[in-house]
Amino acid sequence: AQSVTQLDSQVPVFEEAPVELRCNYSSSVSVYLFWYVQYPNQGLQLLLKYLSGSTLVKGINGFEAEFNKSQTSFHLRKPSVHISDTAEYFCAVSMDFGNEKLTFGTGTRLTIIP
Amino acid sequence: NAGVTQTPKFRVLKTGQSMTLLCAQDMNHEYMYWYRQDPGMGLRLIHYSVGEGTTAKGEVPDGYNVSRLKKQNFLLGLESAAPSQTSVYFCASSSLGRGRETQYFGPGTRLLVL
């Protein structure tokens, strides 16, 4: 079975500073990796996903993530954050064959300090 | 397109009462999911459906039942609510069930069981 670890439950960052949200996964088979974002009082929406190919994935709102198979990581980065990036970010993993299910991490709450 | 909608948005129940949460999607998706979100625990899958007339158990199915009588609707029922079921419930859908597919989420239902 796959699992996801998001070590940082909360990350405060000054506006216009860079940010990295960490995600590590474990799985015995090939995986697909996702980052979802949840803005206050809303449902989740897809930020980006890694399926195959280039390990650097670009998403919406200037975010990107890098798949590192040897370190089983999929860290999310943004070079300069804005107040509007205040949200909770979830890393998720699914397996590479016939598996309908996503396994989510516990989430990282990103707070932007003006 | 409305995407994924959920009713009601909020509900307060007393222990032992029953209720049904309704999820509707207008994207002609085959797969639908019910999750619960609790602080510090991320999203956990309750039940899911791979098509009209079919349902399957997820990670935390106890105390819940589901039905998918129409392709566009997925109902989650609580027969006898317990305080442990206080949570935020999210419905999601995807076009296919392969792990690479994006899931589209509704805005959530906040349930308080007293």
Describe the 3D structure.
The complex is a heterodimer of chains A (114) and B (114). Chain A is mainly β and 114 residues long. Chain A has a single domain (3-113), classed as Immunoglobulin-like (Sandwich), CATH 2.60.40. Chain A has no helices and twelve strands. In chain A, β7 and β8 (64-68) form a beta hairpin. Chain A is globular, with a radius of gyration of 14 Å. Chain A starts with a strand and ends with a strand. The model of chain A has no long low-confidence stretch (mean pLDDT 92). Chain B is an all-beta fold and 114 residues long. Chain B has a single domain, classed as Immunoglobulins (Immunoglobulin-like), CATH 2.60.40.10. Chain B has strands spanning 4-7, 10-13, 19-25, 31-38, 42-51, 54-57, 65-67, 73-78, 87-94, 104-105, 109-113. The mean pLDDT of chain B is 94. At the A-B interface, β5, β6 and β10 of A face β5, β9 and β10 of B.
How would the blueprint of this fold be written?
The complex is a heterodimer of chains A (114) and B (114).
Chain A lengths: L2 E3 L4 E5 L4 E3 L2 E3 L4 E8 L5 E7 L5 E3 L5 E5 L4 E6 L8 E9 L7 E2 L3 E6 L1
Parallel strand pairs in A: 2-12
Antiparallel strand pairs in A: 1-4, 3-9, 5-6, 5-10, 7-8, 8-9, 10-11, 10-12
Chain B lengths: L3 E4 L2 E4 L5 E7 L5 E8 L3 E10 L2 E4 L7 E3 L5 E6 L8 E8 L9 E2 L3 E5 L1
Parallel strand pairs in B: 2-11
Antiparallel strand pairs in B: 1-3, 3-8, 4-5, 4-9, 5-6, 7-8, 9-10, 9-11
Short note summarizing the structure:
The complex is a heterodimer of chains A (114) and B (114). Chain A is mainly beta and 114 residues long.
Characteristics:
heterodimer, A: 114 residues, mainly beta, Immunoglobulin-like, six-stranded mixed sheet, four-stranded antiparallel sheet, 12 strands, 0% helix, 53% strand, globular, B: 114 residues, seven-stranded mixed sheet
